[in-house]
Amino acid sequence: MKKLFAVAIALVLSCGLTVHAQTANANYPEAQLAPNYAADTGAANTLVAQVNSCGAIFTGEVIRVLPAHANTTTTPTLAYCGVSPKTITKFGQSALAANDLLTTAVAVFVYDGTDMQLQNPATLSISGGTVTDGAGTTTAGAEVVATATAHVLAYNTNQVMAAGGYPSFFAGLTTAGLGNPVVLGVSDVTSQSSSQTSVNLIASTGAAGHYLVRLYLDQNALCTTGTGAVYATVGWTDATHAHTALTIPLTLANTAISSAAGFIDAAIPLWSASASAITYTTTYTACTSGTGTYDLHAEVERTN
Questions:
Q1: How far apart are the C-alpha atoms of 220 and 263, rounded to whole Å?
Q2: Consecutive 10-residue averages of pLDDT for the chain (304 residues)
Q3: Looking at residue 160, what is its pLDDT?
Q4: pTM of the predicted model, to two decimals?
Q5: Which end of the chain has fewer surrounding CB within 10 Å, N or C?
Q6: Torsion (CA) 90, 91, 93, 98 in degrees, nearest 10
């Protein structure tokens, strides 16, 4: 037995070892052990790639090419392994955008039998339908473009950011969305020593819905003797009635304003009807002597 095994080993060594790669076919488009990467040697928008072992290309075959140029047209081509140039597409049969191919990123293609479908375009473009803002203005063919190289969020023609840090396609919205409340009115008054009557936070709401009024009152100056007071009242109209809500009074002291006193903070959620005002008033009570003043900071948000 040992002699037979030794003879078998000798025959293998004398004949040499031969490894056969699997030939590409319709069910296995990648040729096993054969490279499918090459650097582009063509001109801009006309890629040419050649690997050491080339033959026919099959539907479903994955091809990797490092472009020599960024594309400047929407219909660049790739000639791979001597096969006639194939149009490069993305997301199925969609045309490319400029700079979808970059010289710093290996492009991955899948041959679909007709075109070379780019699997990793450097930009992403999503188009379609219409966008209607809170004022009822409808924009047709709206497009949002996210550029992977610049990380820019734009709307239509290069509008990037609106005031307040929101993308400009949110500008003009009168209702909150995407989890973001929209601040609709702000009022700041300082060093007051009198009452204020019916100050508009919103003169007219754009739509019926939930709103939130935030108030912050703080003492600005001390009384000489005795104490004074100030409180705020929020007014609004819901579907059927006018309502008011009071904050607790802020006592205007005649001693040092400590960290634990000298301010009140209130948040009043409410439902307001469309085209109605949201207001606040303040009621001031004077000190026994001297003038205790207050600051007020108020805002109203649409929360849905």
A1: 10
A2: 52 44 59 70 94 78 92 95 92 92 93 94 63 51 40 38 43 51 90 93 92 94 94 95 94 84 92 95 95 94 89
A3: 40
A4: 0.45
A5: N
A6: -30
278 inside domain: yes
Residue 9 backbone phi and psi in degrees, to 5: -65, -40
pLDDT score of 36: 77
By the 8 A CB rule, do 138 and 130 touch?
Answer: yes
| Block residue for tokens 């009452």 | 195
The reply to whether 114 and 141 lie within a common domain is no
166 occurs within a structural domain: yes
User: CA 281, 202, 271, 181 torsion: positive or negative?
Assistant: negative
Tell whether 13 is covered by a domain: no
206, 298: one domain = yes
Task: Read off the CATH number of the domain in which 220 is found.
Answer: 2.60.120.340
Q: Which domain holds residue 295?
A: 182-302
Report yes or no on 177 lying in a domain. Answer: no
Do both 146 and 258 map to the same domain?
A: no
